[in-house]
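Supplementary Text 2. Reproducibility record for the structural model of the 308-residue chain.

All settings were left at their defaults, and a single model was retained for analysis rather than an ensemble. We include the record here because the model underlies the residue-level annotations in Supplementary Table 4.
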Amino acid sequence: MKSKKIIIGTRGSKLALFQSSLVLNKLTKLYPEYTFLLKKIITKGDKLISEPLESSIEKGFFVKEIQDSLLKGDIDIAVHSLKDLPVDNLPNLINAAILKRSDHRDCFISNNKTPFHELKTNAIIATSSNRRKAQILKLNPGLKVISIRGNVDTRLNKLDNGYCDGMVLASAALERLKLNNRVSNYFDDEQMLNAPGQGAIAVETRSEGAVKDIVASLDHKKTRFCISQERLFLKTLMGGCTSPIGAYCNIENNFIKLKGIVLSFDGKESITKEIKTEYTNSENIGIDLAQLILNSGADKILAETKSL
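Retained model, structure tokens:
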């Protein structure tokens, strides 16, 4: 008797293939009676590389074609970088598993390993994230921040060919691609707060059927909880707008800590708040922190960023 095939949909970049292969290998070990296969899918985000990154995520440009394939039954599982997913799930699809989070931080890369704090005035730093740009300028208003798109290899090649003096990337991406040797320094949470969900991998399935139960065995409960709070914070503040917003939630010694930031595009205005409370699964501290930060004046910053 032949084993049943389960198709995993993924983008074709090295990072996406690493992440989907990680899921495939975990599932193969747990369910040897099934054959898991990868299927590469090209998304709009892979084609429209001139599109601003945040608006791409807002419209689901990195996930829509994969989700469509999942809904049509062409694939059975979809693997995503969780931060690429819009905050609202599609009907008939669920995140059946969220893997244990890797490094949530951002890191700085420069050709000669110059750390961020040693950069000269007018140094050119590349990113296409409004969140990163605002926090870069908050740390050093004298820097020039320019846009860059493409996968990690493409960005590193542009850096090597003189496009910029340095760039900010997700630490998890460099770690997964074994490119940690390129990192000049890591940003701590006081310097730069990550995007909600950064460092986590989401495994999406249809909401009905046996596959969701198979995938659910990979779920990491504490990661799911923390990321749900970060995304709840984001959703309560902004829905789909492109304002610079960061958030990080973690659990230590049975206490939850959620920290959030809202900034103006130029980094000159920012509000940071933090909530710490006992850990229970019924908490909605993402909403609480969003209200706290709005009541502290973030509503004015958000109104200005939305109008631009």
